[in-house]
Amino acid sequence: MGNFDNDREKNLEWLGKLRDYFAEFQSLPSYRYMQDLLGIRSKEKIGNFISLLKDEGFLDLAPDKKIIPTDRFFEVTLSDTTVQAGTMTQMMGDGGTTVNLQRVLIKKPSVTEIITVRGNSMIDEHIADGDKVIVEKRPLANVGDIVVAILNDEQTVKTLGKENGEYVLIPANKNFQTIRNKKFEIFGVVKGLYRIY
């Protein structure tokens, strides 16, 4: 079988087109459509490319023999450079590793929910209106965890605290009061967030 690195630039270009297609349609194209998408006339060449992607761990076969993407298919480049938020510095480094964002952000898919934040009570924790918090659903949390709590049949995101032996919900905005002397349940613990600009 071939080696992905033999024509790495072209193989990465084609893989990128397949990733973009999957991101839009949540499926891989048929072999015939793949020929058009990648600009490859030969069915044999498409077959060889698919075999190469299987060998490299980007694709696999489902039980029904359909081609499916693996975790590696979803990896994106994690640059080995940094970007300054202050004074500009010269760019250094020219490579990087890869990272699978789903694997980084979601450790337990079966108990994970993504919830849209409304309001700015957690702005000093950099959780803003419209952000999506990644919540691991569980009824217990540690003091200091950022949690989604259920209070009066509504959800709120706050930091779990403890005062005088009682649990409280602490905002991260001086314009909001700590929630004390109220019954609430922990819906889950915030494990991350994302924001789309």
Task: Summarize the structure in words.
The chain is of the alpha+beta class. It contains 4 helices and 10 strands, in the order αααββββαββββββ. The longest helix has 18 residues, at 8-25. It is elongated, with a radius of gyration of 23 Å. The two termini are 42 Å apart.
Task: Tell me the layout of helices and strands.
Blueprint: H1 8-25, H2 31-38, H3 43-55, E1 59-61, E2 67-69, E3 76-79, E4 96-99, H4 101-105, E5 112-116, E6 132-137, E7 146-151, E8 154-163, E9 166-170, E10 185-194
Antiparallel strand pairs: 1-2, 3-4, 5-6, 6-10, 7-8, 7-10, 8-9
Q: Key features?
A:
single chain; 197 residues; alpha+beta; two-stranded antiparallel sheet; 10 strands; elongated
The percent of residues in helical segments reads 10-25%
* Coarse shape: elongated
What class do helices, strands and sheet pairing give? alpha+beta
Radius of gyration, CA atoms, in whole angstroms: 23 Å
Strand line-up across the major sheet: 5-6-10-7-8-9
Order of helices and strands: HHHEEEEHEEEEEE
Number of strands: 10
Oligomeric state of the chains?
single chain
In DSSP terms, counting alpha (H) and pi (I) runs of 4 or more, how many helices?
Answer: 4
User: What do the pLDDT scores average to?
Assistant: 88
β-strand percent reads 25-35%
- Which stretches are poorly predicted, pLDDT < 50 over at least 5 residues? none
> The biggest beta sheet, please?
6 strands, antiparallel
